[in-house]
Structure formats: C-alpha cells, structure tokens
Amino acid sequence: MKSFLVFFILIGLDAATATGAPQEALFRPSATDAAITQFNDRHFAVVDPAVTSRAKLVLFLPGTGATPFLYREFPRNAASHGFHALGLMYPNDSAINALCAQNAPLDPDAAGNARLEVIDGIDRVGFLTVDSTNSIQNRLLKALQYLHSSSPSQGWNQYYSGNNVLWDKLVICGHSQGAGMAAMLAKTRVANRCILFTGMDWWEDGNRPYNWMLTAPQTPVDRWYLFAHERDQFLDFTQMQNAAAALDVTRYGAYLRVESYATASYRARHFLSTNLEPAPTQPTSYHGCPVVDAATPLQNDGITPVFKPVWDYLLLNDTAPITIETNSGGISILFSPGILEQSEDLVLWTSQSAASPLTLPPNMLPLRRFYRLVTP
After folding, report:
1. Distance between CA 237 and CA 231 in Å, rounded?
2. Banded model confidence at residue 365, pLDDT cuts 50, 70, 90
3. CA 87 to CA 70: how far, in whole Å?
C-alpha cells in the first residue's frame, strides 16, 4: 500500500510561454484517407516549434454541426504551452441526445452505444450509421500519419504506434457533442487528461444522466475537468451539475465561477463555470461562450480570450491527493479516489467512510487532526 501524508497544499501553475512562429495546417480528412468521403470539412493542426515540447497531444472535437475551423483559439493556446494540438472533423451532423430521444427514449444505454459507434465504427444502434472508416479512431490515426508524412520534423508520429493511437499521450477535449465524445473516449481509454466544454448526456425519460456517465472511467477522475456557462441556452445548468456528480468531478468540490475568483488556481476545482456575456458578435451564444472562437469574449487588447487563464488551468493544473479548505461552515476535505484516514497523534489512523468532499462543521473540529490518503 502507498500512503500520501498531506499537511499543506501548494498549487502551482506553469504559465510560461515562448514566442515564435506557430505552424498551422488545415487539411481535409479525404487527404488522409481516400475512403473518407463524408464529413470532409478540414481538420486543424497547430504546433509551435519555438516552445519546448510536452510530448502530449491536445485532441479537440467540435460540437454538433460545427467544424474545427470554428475552434482554433483553444488549440493555439495549447500550442503556446508546448502541446501538439489537433481539431478533428468527425460525424457530428445530429445531436446524440436528440437522436436518442427520438428513436430510443426508453433506453438508458442509447447515448453510450451511439457514442461508441461514432468512436470505433462498430454497429450498435439502428438510428446511426458510422463505419470504421469514418470513425473518430480511424480519422485520428490517419490525420496523425498524414501530419507526420507532411511534416516529419514536427513529431506527430509520437502519438501512434503502427495502427494504434497512444491514448495515454492525449489530452482529449471537446465542446457540446464533442465533449460527450471526449468523455466517452476517456471512459474507455487511459488518456493523459479529459477536458469537457459544455457537454453531457441527459436521459429525459429517466430524468438523469445516461448510464455510461455513471461507469468507472479508465482515465482517472483526477484528470477530468469541466467548464460550462451557467446560462447555457441548450443545456440546463442544474442538470449539468448532476452530470458532473455522475462523472465524479464534484469530489473536488462544487462548481466555481471563474470570474468571481481572483487567482487562476481556482481552488483546485475540476468543475468551473462562467456567467459572463459572450462576445458582442454572438451576444446570445452562451453555449459557445467558453470555447467557440466567435462567442468567446476578448480581453481589453481585443486579441486575447478572456478565458485564457481558465484554458491554461484546464490544461496544466495538477491536483493534489488531498486539499483542505476552511470556510464559515467549517472545513472541507477534498480527496482523490482512495481511503481517507485521519489521526490526532500521527500514530493511530482511522479510516473515514465519507465520500469526498468530507465536510466538518465548526462544532466537530478537534484541536488538531491530520489526514492521509491510502491508495493501492
């Protein structure tokens, strides 16, 4: 058994960037595989050779009916931190939730099966047709192979081996429908990180998240992050909170509104929100505000996205095994999966049965107490 003894937590954020000339590419999926003839809008790739490489790939999946061209700022920001970044075009013409509500309203597994079919092309649902050629897996592999062939010095080949994507080197991200795809990928594969912008699968007939959201993830929960708008016009924010609980990211605390917090550490939260107005050119696009280029508000320079500190945090934050917060209601102990133990003398340790976060009101606070997390 391995134990982590925590007395204080120091959260650091690597915000360093370097100047240089980022190298970008827009190319059609059909250029990477002649058998791909549908959903042929261009992929978007970017890497900055002037920045020390992190040897990690940020994969971004757009929302329903959208293309990677509409989401270039987030990948560019990732490249400025040394990531390779790739916005991937995939079959996304119809919203998964809408398809399931229309065709399989009583099936709590419909959304999960539909997403898996889009990912690997194996037939699972009758209301969706995606073959292996058009699947996310094939499109991603072929895009990486194409990028390596076109620009062999850029290092795109480090993210696949033969015909296999090396998922553990990927930061899987997505917006709306793409967030659901990213989440399913992180549920079924060990990824480096998963970042979800304004997305979930809500089973209307059961008034709860679809079954797949409640399953244990292959990518550990400490690597999952969510960012959403509280006035999203398509997704109910209360339901999004329930979805965040289903994904277990609320073990690190309830959502935190980013503009209400002075520093970019965001109290180590994994569920962030905003209530800011979108960019003036798309004044009602609350759904797109967190990450869509045209809807994301800009800082006073008219160039830098307001959410750049948030995006940096989502990409770079490392979560401590245990975080202890104090507030007017007492203290809260937020901890990663494992067995939380407490002691008053550092000799006798007692297991705590409560789930994270464990909240102790003022009248229950001892003179002193220590906590540690025991993991297999």
Report:
1. 7
2. low
3. 10
Between residues 65 and 364, which one has the greater pLDDT?
65
- Asked whether the CA dihedral 233, 195, 263, 301 is positive or negative, the reply is negative
Amino acid making up residue 279: A
Q: What is the pLDDT of residue 4?
A: 39
Peptide bond into 376 cis (omega under 30): no
At 363 the pLDDT is 73
**Is 331:302 a contact under the CB 8 Å cutoff?**
no
Distance CA 52, CA 312 (A): 16
Q: What is the pLDDT of residues 270-313, one digit of tens each?
A: 999 999 999 999 999 999 999 999 999 999 999 999 999 999 99
How far apart are the C-alpha atoms of 234 and 144, rounded to whole Å? Answer: 33
Query: What average pLDDT does range 168-197 have in this prediction?
Result: 98
- Rg (C-alpha) for the chain, rounded Å, is 21
Q: Give φ, ψ of 161 to 5 degrees.
A: -135, 115
For the ranges 89-93, 252-256, 262-266, 272-276, the lowest mean pLDDT is seen at 262-266
**Arch. (CATH architecture) of 12-320:** 3-Layer(aba) Sandwich (3.40)
pTM across the whole model: 0.92
Apex 362 CA angle, 359 and 367, nearest 5? 100
Parse the chain into domains and list their residue ranges: 12-320, 323-375
